[in-house]
Amino acid sequence: MATHLHRLLLLFLPSLLLFRRGTPPPPPPNPSAAVYPVVLVPGNTCSQLEARLTDAYEPPPESPQCGAGSNERGRWFRLWRNATAMDDPAVAPCLSDQLRVVYDPAARDFRNVPGVETRVLGFGSTAGFLADTEANKDLCMRRLVEALQQAGYRDGETLFGAPYDFRQAPAARGQPCRAFGRFTRRLRALVERASRENGEKPVVLVSHSQGGYFALEFLNRSPLSWRRKYVKHYVMASTGPGGFLLPLRNLASTPGEAVEAPDAFVALPSPVVFGAGTPPLVVTRDRNYTASDMLEFLTAIGVPPLGVTLYETRALPVQLGFRAPLVPTTCVNGVGVSTMKQLVYWDGNFSETPEVVYGDGDGLLPLASILALDTVIGSDPRQEYYKSIKLADTSHAGVVSDAAALKRVVDEILWSTPM
Predict the structure, then answer these.
(1) Strand ordering across the sheet containing 77-80
(2) Is 4 an annotated catalytic residue?
(3) Cβ contacts of residue 12 below 8 Å, gap of 6+?
(4) What is the pLDDT of residue 68?
(5) Is 195 part of the annotated catalytic residue set?
(6) Is this prediction's pTM over 0.85?
(7) What mean pLDDT value characterizes the chain?
(8) What are the pLDDT digits (tens) for 125-173?
(9) Does the annotation count 362 as an active-site position?
(10) Which stretch of DSSP H or E encloses residue 160?
(11) HEC string of 323-391?
């Protein structure tokens, strides 16, 4: 009934300086002095979505109550996150159905199910970042927002938010992707407005988790002259270019959803990091799979041919194109937390729960994915300033919520880096 909701919730749920290149920044300025405006891009499921139903909406056959006499038709209502509806067994199936996206072969793009219109709430503000529980405050940058406000930042004046439709994902260049195109246009306008309203100062762009994939693609698809004019510093927290294993496990259990969830492929392990010559990510009696074998793995677990094609044409090129943003960049990641590094389906039955082999990481990102930042970004000769910070015994969400980690992140935001 709520399989899609379940997948959404699962998928996205002392420090050591390892790498620094370029002129070190000066000490943090006095918070009461003039500051550079900050734009935050949150992690997955941390943005609020509203929906409106039209007469074209047809409820699923097993849940006719979702459409018959619905009070939601014609008016906007909270689609995500609607805790009341999620707890109501009569309404939860409606929420799950209306959250779906489907692939439109004619448009070569993903869209809402027919009859469902959606919009992202509160673009430009951090007020809409999901924070209705303490756990969501930790995951969705609310602790960071509070810390920045204590440092003197004000929402809508010097502090801005860029929520997005987390069900979607950036697609390869040349592939239609209306959702990411819309996000790119809105974020570019927001950055320019934040700069203009703060004395033409460039912004500090800060992302967490999946927000890093969106923010980095945004930067790399923006003209270099624009980046250098408007972005003073990019602080990327809890993002690794190599992806992680949880999407593999989720797809193995619900392979059919691959054609209804473009975000399912965003963080699949990348062959750049987990390709030939690396330990296998998936082990069975008959064969093993690295990220270089992802097409075969997706076929083996039962992903429909369309889903395999969408991965190959829309998601994989984005993974392969992960590169340095060419603006001053600091990457902050947790390490020292038990993290999935291998899945064992010994009998080859991918519908069963696998045996999990654990290694180092942040609880979600394996260490290899985190360290790849130093190769992908840090080793690019065009990247004039780069710093990589590894926070010991710090989880994926802890980077933007634990007190000591928050201080490091805020210090990086306050520091004025070279241009």
Answers:
(1) 77-80, 49-53, 116-120
(2) no
(3) 43, 44, 45, 166, 209, 210
(4) 53
(5) no
(6) yes
(7) 88
(8) 998 886 666 667 788 999 999 999 999 999 999 999 999 999 999 999 9
(9) yes
(10) strand 159-161
(11) CCCCCCEEEEEEECECEEEEEECCCCCCCCCCEEEEECEECCCEHHHHHHHHHHHHCCCCCCCEEEEEE
